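Saturday, quiet lab. Running sequence design on the structure tokens for the scaffold JK sent over.
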């Protein structure tokens, strides 16, 4: 059985972590599989939104520490740790979290654009408990997503926070009853998938890169123009304008 399996529902790809016996901790094989899944997702125009979820009671406990002790690091050749951290997809990615998202498991959610969590979910960067450092983006991405003092508390105390706490700070988009995270993630994915795919991708790329590379205001204008150029010259733009004028739903082609 694959450590990660995928399903398509319309234009929505569901990616499921499938090592519940190991609390969905990542070894090298799982990281390489994730990279292949993300490469495929980015290469298929019909796949407009992806949801990341997990089998079992734990979203992910992060790096498989038994594998790490053997010298096996959960990384892939291009996308980096967990097959995702260094190079997340430039298409939308939604986390549907049930249970614990700890260490690298929380860093997986930092690669996502929207996060849905059940009331039973918890989030934590617990690496320092094991004399590790959150090198999957946690130490530099979390302070971008939370107030600095809160991010530092999570990193330095290693104490997890509840879904309700993370929702109050805007880290989590929706909090739902246990077992309902995937349903709510589907609702959000459907809202995204109905929109023009080239425009959605360009919007995410501008937001992600401007944050990751801390664009200055004066350079952001030129950089966003370069990314948006494909959209502004697309068939989908002409279709969107025609559909608006004709008072009908647009038929996107992704080109």
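Result came back. Writing it out in full:
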């Amino acid at each position: 059985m694959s450590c990660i399996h995928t399903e398509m529902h319309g234009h929505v790809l569901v990616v499921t972590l499938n090592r519940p016996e190991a609390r969905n901790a990542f070894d090298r094989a799982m990281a390489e599989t994730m990279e292949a899944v993300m490469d495929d997702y980015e290469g298929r125009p019909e796949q407009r939104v992806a949801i990341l979820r997990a089998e079992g009671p734990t979203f992910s406990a992060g790096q498989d520490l038994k594998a790490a002790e053997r010298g096996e690091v959960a990384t892939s050749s291009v996308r980096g740790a967990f097959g995702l951290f260094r190079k997340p997809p430039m298409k939308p990615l939604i986390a549907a979290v049930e249970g614990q998202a700890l260490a690298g498991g929380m860093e997986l959610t930092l690669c996502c654009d929207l996060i849905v969590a059940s009331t039973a979910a918890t989030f934590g960067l617990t690496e320092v408990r094991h004399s590790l450092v959150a090198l999957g983006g946690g130490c530099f991405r979390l302070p971008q997503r939370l107030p600095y003092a809160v991010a530092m508390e999570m990193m330095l105390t290693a104490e997890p926070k509840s879904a309700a706490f993370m929702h109050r700070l805007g880290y989590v988009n929706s909090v739902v009853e246990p077992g309902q995270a995937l349903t709510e993630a589907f609702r959000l994915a459907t809202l995204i998938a109905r929109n023009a795919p080239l425009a959605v991708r360009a919007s995410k790329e501008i937001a992600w890169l401007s944050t990751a590379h801390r664009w200055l205001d004066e350079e952001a204008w030129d950089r966003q123009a370069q990314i948006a150029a494909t959209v502004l010259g697309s068939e989908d733009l002409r279709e969107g304008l025609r559909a608006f004028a004709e008072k009908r739903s647009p038929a996107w082609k992704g080109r």
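Notes for JK: Strands lie at 4-9, 12-17, 49-54, 58-60, 93-97, 100-102, 114-118, 122-124, 161-162, 174-176. The chain has two domains: 4-193, 197-245. Ask whether to fix the surface positions before the next round.
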